[in-house]
Amino acid sequence: MARDWNWRSATVPTQAQAPGQAGPQPLSDNPGLAKVQQVMARVLMLQEDVDEFVGKKTEKSYRYLEELLTKELLVLDSVETQGLENVRQALIELERLLFTGKAIISHADEVWPRLYIGDQHSAENKADLCRHRITHILNAAHSKRGGQPEIYEGMTITYMGIEAHDSCGFDMSVNFHSAAAFIHGALSRGGKVLVHCHVGVSRSATLVLAYLMLKQNLTLVEAICAVKENRGVGPNRGFLRQLIKLDGKLFGTHP
């Protein structure tokens, strides 16, 4: 079980201090950096609990710790850098720590029953598509250079393409419902779906997370935990904000 602590008064843990040395690092006067410090303190304590956990990763207590870690990602998103480099670097480091799912060692991974997230290579390897009996492909990086339905001629594959850019300013949310409907319809008929983009980390993962929220009634935290067990994912910060907004609409968990 994770230890309790005061969310408002946490300070950044430091290495053991020698007699006469200063105590724990105080919170910064800058609101953005102070908030990052608070999140870092909570994450470090949670990470220690995870590292010391004895048992199987499938146990509820372990999944609870992992969910708490993921929740800090949502707190992190509200931090404004105000142009400060130290805040920006702290955010980058914390995001790297929080997106600690399974390492990507294959072109595609099954992240939900019969639902895969993959890269461009996985979508173009016809032998693998046949071997895994993929029936539907959702391309989140559709373009003249990034795959067209014509390459699946002669195969029993239904294709949907979304022209999305992996940039924080791109509005991916306009595709949430149509993508979720495409995935849900395929799975409901017993099909297998590959959702892919160029690398299989941001755009494709964002659409799969939205599907899990819209059609499987998972919160954003639950969806991230479910997916990252099988594939490391990292929606860009703009996509993450859009998912947080969807989470708020569906579950009222965010203002």
TrEMBL record:
GO terms for molecular function: MAP kinase phosphatase activity; protein serine/threonine phosphatase activity; protein tyrosine phosphatase activity; protein tyrosine/serine/threonine phosphatase activity; protein-folding chaperone binding. GO terms for cellular component: Golgi apparatus; nucleus. It is found in: Cytoplasm; Golgi apparatus; Nucleus. InterPro entries: Atypical_DUSP_subfamA, BAG_dom_sf, BAG_domain, Dual-sp_phosphatase_cat-dom, Prot-tyrosine_phosphatase-like, Tyr_Pase_AS, Tyr_Pase_dom, TYR_PHOSPHATASE_DUAL_dom. One of its GO terms (biological process) is negative regulation of MAPK cascade. It catalyses: O-phospho-L-seryl-[protein] + H2O = L-seryl-[protein] + phosphate; O-phospho-L-threonyl-[protein] + H2O = L-threonyl-[protein] + phosphate. The active site is at 197 (phosphocysteine intermediate). Residues 1-31 are annotated as: Disordered. Residues 174-231 form the Tyrosine specific protein phosphatases domain. It is an enzyme of class 3 (hydrolase). Its EC number is 3.1.3.16, 3.1.3.48. Keywords: Cytoplasm, Golgi apparatus, Hydrolase, Nucleus, Protein phosphatase. Residues 32-90 form the BAG domain. Residues 10-26 have a biased composition (Low complexity). Residues 107-252 form the Tyrosine-protein phosphatase domain. Interacts with HSF4. Belongs to the protein-tyrosine phosphatase family. Non-receptor class dual specificity subfamily. This is Dual specificity protein phosphatase 26. It comes from Scophthalmus maximus (Turbot).
